Amino acid sequence: MSWKNTQQNSFADPLVIEHKSLSELDDVHNIINWSEIEQTLSNLYSSKTGASAYPPIMMFKILILQAWYGLSDEALEKQIARDLMFRRFIDLSLSEVVPDHATIWRFRQLLNTENLLEPLLEQINHHLEQNSIIVSLGLINIIDATVIEAKQSRKRKGRNGNNTQDPEAGYEV
Fold this sequence. Notes:
single chain, two-stranded antiparallel sheet
C-alpha cells in the first residue's frame, strides 16, 4: 500500500501569515528524532494493493497530539481541520484531507496490535526528558535551569518605622 504525499505544499500554504502561536510546537518537533520513529513504523503497511494510506509517521504524530491535548478521536479530527499549528506539527498541507476519527482509531488499534504504541511513546518521552521538556495536558514547558543572580531588595520601613523584611534575611550594601 502506498502512502499519500501529504507534505507537498498547496498554493494556499505560503499564504498563511507566520505567527508565534503557529510555531509553539516547533521546538518540540525539532528535538524528537523522527527518522528513528519512522523506521519503526515503516513496515506497518506492507500491502501493495489498496488506496493510498496516510503516512504512519503523520498518524503517530496525530496520536501524540491527542495524548498531549486530551482529545477524543472526533475532537482531534475537528482540531486538525481547524488548527494550523496542529497541521504544521503533523506536516499536513492545507489542501489535504484531514484523517477522520475512524482512521485515527484504526491506526491506534494497529499500533496496539503490533505492540508498538507503548514503546514508541516511551521513545518520545525519552527524547523530551533528555531535553528537559515536560508535557502536561495541553501545555508544553521547556525547563531551563540556568542560574541567574537575582538583585536583592533593600530594607523597607513599615508604617511604624520597623523593617518589613525577615530579620534573619541578609543584605549587604
